[in-house]
Design goal:
849 residues; alpha/beta; eight-stranded mixed beta sheet; six-stranded mixed beta sheet; 36% helix; flat; disordered N terminus
Length: 849
């Protein structure tokens, strides 16, 4: 049956993250309102309780003495405060006429009662000579009545009023006794599932078992958020750890489970309808459990300390369980022959024999569907890697590789756990028309387990290390070292991530270099780690004396390296902004401001008077994010709480390119909703995974946002001519008339820089006196030196120079001359002071006198 799921109509990862954050914020706000209402109520009761009144004033409170039966006391383990206590109720409150409202009042004090079904009865209080109220006996037959309806509640408080009128000389206010007893007819709590009965204590397990599974239920998962919460509840008793993705199309899980409850966990999964028989090849179980001690150190080190592969259980909702980048969903139930591991083993052996005999044309094509960093450290003999950097690249590579392959040719494919092969198999059979497609059931993980269980004497046909998606990053199947160290080129199969969180690239690195570079990929990253300058998310911060001893041995290769090593860390969202630009608009990735320039822009905006910034050239929003960060700092320092076009902290940005504008709007909306923290990083990553096609095009010419809870206003404009808009602002004409700015950042048309600065200087409507203009690219790749000399020695051309190179040279010379002219003329302008900084491609900081 063809899957009914479609990519169209399925929320993007960004939308899912925004929905989850919106739900979280709504719940947080609701809790905050409830706490505030409770505090206000308590304060009001205190004022009423301690208000001194004469004897003729009618009290505004009822005193309720509450008594809880012994059975409930033991069952709910009530505190001493809760066993017998008093509750005060206002005479005008709903609790004096409504049973539901009365129970709510009791819950506010006896919070444990929320966990149980109970019955109420009421009685007259016993008043001692010193005017102390004590409870009436629960088992008394006289003077006790059940409270089961709203009428009973009203009657109870009428009795309290009558008693108070009769014994006003003994009572300060109307009083009554409420007895709380267990409801004998309340339904019993459901029995735990059979697999939990007599289950061993997971805490007593001496080992942890790594496992993985995936499922594509034909009818999909109707409500992924609800299903994810169900999984969390069902798996909690097992103390399971791991990372699980849930989407409408299915489930993808990499987990670790205490070995002593592994069978119970498997039974639990089989009883979940959406998993059950749809877990293709069942649960992939690592053949070698890790002892608790080994598990604690098997993951990627954190803060220089050993860490486990998984530390928590994360069940996250995504729009796809494997992001494939396809325009449409396929029938995942029809994806070729699911070849059992031992049959696969024999087929690969036969293919090897055919190649050795010189009969390659009869051998099947074996495709490795994994990415380059995976295939570099381990693969099946004779397999052909696709050489992809991400799974999204697979389809174009397959089209090119199989373009001349007969449709009935035998094709065998494999991946780590089998899930990617489901999608590749479905694509190759349904979209490309191949008829003889098979895939390794359960992937390399299942092959490894089956071979070790059923044919230990057999030589594995997989050589090297199987990259796995947990903290281990790899499990060696054979001793073969197929990879090459990123730093010294030595043979190795060790895979890790660079410990500099602003880099974090996945790399192959030998143990010697891993030790020498402290788990990083380069000198620069090593120096940042040794300086402790890491983002809070990874928890790597300065460590006092231990850090000081490390920094003594740091050797910096350049002043730039030294400067970055001794600068505060860049928040992780900027790394995501760079990655997004590279992924979504790769031809312009070099145009991103970058860490050093971005930090300077944030500092300049922070030092401005009010945090009012105009940016010309938004591109994808990297510099915009820096300016928003700085504007927020400025607002917080001077105590401003609201910014907009007319006053307060405000960032206005203009962009001409529609694609860049769309990406910038999507990214700035994330920052507006989540700030500069880890929630924003996660949402930005989700945006990248969705691809450029999933980012909506903005028909509107401008988008208004609020940042930092409205402290900073932000408006993004899509314009055809930013200079024309600026000149209208300077002349006091047009629809866009914001209050003057403190800072103008110009990263726009390089041929009209003098015109941009003139618009700022000719009128105080755009830039305040004493404000700053920052112009980017004023050194233009260093060519301004040659422009100033009138000769471009680095661009010598002859008859062998290609036309494309000639055009590039002509443009570079033209822009270098323009930059040199701008630098020379702005320096001679008496209205400004100029400082040129050799940061990146050169920044000119211009102060308006």
């Amino acid at each position: 049956m063809a899957s009914t799921l479609r990519v169209q109509g399925v929320p993007t990862n960004l939308e899912l993250v925004e929905q989850r954050l919106a739900t979280f914020r709504a719940k947080k706000d609701a809790r905050g309102r409830a706490v505030q209402q409770s505090n206000e109520r308590n304060q009001r009761l205190k004022r009423l309780l301690y208000n001194t009144t004469d004897s003729h004033t009618v009290p505004t409170l009822y005193a309720i003495k509450v008594s809880v039966c012994d059975e409930l006391r033991q069952e709910l383990k009530l505190s001493g405060r809760e066993k017998r206590g008093r509750v005060f109720v206002e005479q005008e409150s709903a609790a004096v006429t409504s049973l539901k409202a009365l129970k709510f009042e009791l819950h506010s004090f006896f919070r444990a009662l929320r966990k149980s079904s109970f019955l109420l009865s009421a009685g007259f209080p016993v008043i001692e000579e010193e005017r102390t109220i004590i409870s009436s006996a629960e088992n008394a037959t006289d003077g006790i009545w059940d409270v089961t309806t709203d009428e009973d509640v009203a009657r109870t408080f009428r009795v309290a009023d009558e008693l108070f009128a009769e014994k006003r000389h003994l009572l300060k206010r109307p009083a009554i006794v409420i007895h709380v007893r267990r409801d004998p007819n309340a339904p019993l709590p459901p029995r735990p599932p059979a697999y939990l009965q007599s289950m061993p204590d997971p805490n007593q397990s001496k080992s942890m078992t790594m496992l993985s599974f995936y499922a594509f239920p034909p009818e999909g998962i109707a409500d992924p958020e609800d299903f994810a919460q169900t999984l969390r509840k069902l798996w909690k008793p097992f103390h399971a750890l791991g990372r699980v993705y849930v989407a409408q199309e299915g489930v993808n899980a990499q987990m670790s489970v205490p070995t002593n409850v592994l069978e119970q966990f498997r039974t639990c999964c089989r009883e979940i309808r959406e998993l059950g028989t749809y877990m293709e090849n069942g649960i992939n179980i690592d053949p070698k459990p890790l002892t608790v001690e080994d598990f604690a150190t098997a993951g990627v080190p954190v803060n220089g300390k050993p860490a486990p592969p998984f530390r928590n259980l994360h069940v996250r909702v995504r729009n796809q369980i494997v992001a494939d980048g396809l325009d449409q969903s396929l029938d995942w139930q029809s994806a070729g022959y699911d070849m059992p591991p031992m049959e696969w083993h024999e087929k690969v052996k036969e293919a090897k024999t055919l190649r050795e005999e010189g009969r390659e044309e009869f051998a099947p094509l074996i495709i490795d569907c994994r990415n380059t960093y995976e295939t570099s450290v381990g693969r099946f003999e004779g397999a052909e890697p696709l050489e992809t950097e991400s799974f999204r690249e697979t389809w174009e590579v397959l089209k090119d590789r199989l373009a001349r392959t007969p449709k009935d040719a035998p094709i065998m494919m494999y991946c780590t756990g089998g899930i990617r092969c489901v999608k590749v198999g479905a694509y190759v059979t349904q979209e490309m028309g191949f008829t003889n497609v098979s895939r390794l059931a359960g992937g390399i993980i299942a092959y490894d387990r089956k071979l070790s269980e059923e044919a230990k004497e057999e030589e594995p046909m997989f050589k090297g290390t199987n990259f796995v998606f947990d903290g281990r990053l790899g499990r060696a199947i054979t001793d073969d070292t197929l990879g090459s160290c990123i730093t010294c080129a030595a043979e190795t199969s060790l895979v890790s991530n660079c410990l500099n969180d602003n880099c974090h690239q996945r790399m192959i690195q030998c143990q010697d270099c891993k030790t020498a570079f402290h788990g990083t990929c380069s000198d620069a990253c090593r120096n940042r780690v040794l300086n402790g300058l890491m983002s809070p998310r990874r928890g790597l911060v300065s460590s006092g004396v231990a850090l000081e001893s490390k920094t003594d041995s740091i050797v910096y290769s350049s002043l730039d390296d030294y400067s970055m090593g001794h600068s505060s860390p860049t928040p992780s969202i900027y790394r995501e902004l760079e990655f997004n630009t590279k992924a979504l608009i790769p031809t312009g990735s070099h145009m991103v401001s970058g860490a050093s320039q971005g930090r300077l822009l944030a500092q300049l905006a922070s030092m401005s008077r009010e945090g009012r910034v105009l940016e010309l050239g938004t591109f994808t929003g990297y510099a915009t994010a820096c300016l928003l960060e700085g504007a927020s700092n400025a607002a917080n320092v001077i105590g401003m709480t609201r910014g907009n076009r007319e006053s307060g902290a405000f960032v206005m940005s203009m962009e001409r390119d529609q694609r860049a504008f769309d990406v910038a709007v999507a990214q700035m909306k994330i920052l507006a909703g989540s700030g500069h923290g880890e929630e924003a990083s996660e949402a930005l990553c989700a945006l990248r995974n969705g691809g450029l096609d999933r980012i909506p095009s903005n028909i509107k010419k401008f988008v208004r946002l609020e940042y930092d809870g409205g402290t900073v206003g932000c408006e993004l404009f899509h314009v055809t001519d930013a200079l024309a808009t600026m000149e209208e602002m300077a002349a006091g004409r047009g629809d866009v008339q914001p209050a003057p700015f403190d800072l103008v950042f110009v990263d726009a048309d390089k041929t009209r820089l003098l015109e941009y600065t003139e618009a700022c200087l000719s009128s105080d409507r755009v830039l305040k006196k004493g404000g700053f203009i920052v112009v980017d690219n004023v050194l233009w790749k260093g060519l301004v030196l040659e422009a100033s000399a009138g000769h471009f020695a680095s661009m010598v051309e002859d008859e062998t120079t290609e036309e494309l190179e000639r055009r590039k040279n002509r443009r570079a010379r033209k822009l270098a001359n323009k930059m040199h002219r701008f630098n020379s003329e702005i320096l001679r302008d008496p209205r400004v002071e100029v400082l040129v900084l050799p940061i990146r491609d050169g920044l000119s900081v211009i102060r308006k006198k």
